[in-house]
Amino acid sequence: MIEFKNVIKRYSQPILSIQELSIADRSKIGIYGPSGTGKTTFLHLISGLITPSEGSIFVNGTELSALSESKRDRFRAKHIGYVFQTFNLVEGYTALENVMLSQVFLYGRSDKSKASEMLDRVGLSERKNHIPSTLSVGQQQRVCIARALVNDPDILLADEPTGSLDPESSKLVMDQILEFSDGRTLLLVSHDNAVLDRFNDRLSLTEFKP
Question: Average pLDDT, whole number, for the chain?
Fold first, then answer.
């Protein structure tokens, strides 16, 4: 369960204002809205990458802003997988090492066999030892999916995961995200109606714009 209570997030001005919002476990929700409505901010708040200016956010019963930054990092590594719009892969590391990094954040060590298995599952068996710059953008995004899921999180967040992909790669990435989110909560931001059409439940953030 994800719960927002009297949340305001502001920078120079308020970006989001959510008085009350509850997202049930195993929900699959497509999130949309014009630029500037706080879609990435919304995901960052849920992940604990940022904290609200006012109010509280509870994830699995834990109030994120009550945790120290290091505890929020560990909580995120255990419970939340994040597929970033800009990939955020470490260029000097291979695809396999990038996935293993996610394990290190949680366990202080890595499990090479499990990380390798995740790359097999996203169809990158032959690309494990390649660095990001030698992979296509679609392959890089599939590395990100493997990295997000290797710790078996309860929640999967995806920020415009198909935004830079061609239609064929976009369909493959969405197929994998929907398949691997089975049994998890999935919150996915997109501007693409073809992507949003794959969700029965959608949330417009325009209603939370101050």
Answer: 95
Helical (H) or strand (E) element with 201: strand 201-204
Can you list the residues of the chain whose pLDDT is less than 50?
A: none
What is the C-alpha to C-alpha distance for residues 22 and 161, in angstroms, rounded to an integer? Answer: 24
The two three-digit tokens of residue 70, written as one number: 């290091």
**CA dist., res. 77 & res. 151, Å (int):** 7
Q: Over the stretch 158-204, which tens digit does the pLDDT of each residue have?
A: 999 999 899 999 999 999 999 999 999 999 999 999 999 999 999 99
Which residues are registered as beta bridge partners of 81? 156
* CA pair distance 165, 141, nearest whole angstrom: 9
Using alpha carbons, select from 148, 202, 203 the residue that is nearest to residue 180. Answer: 148
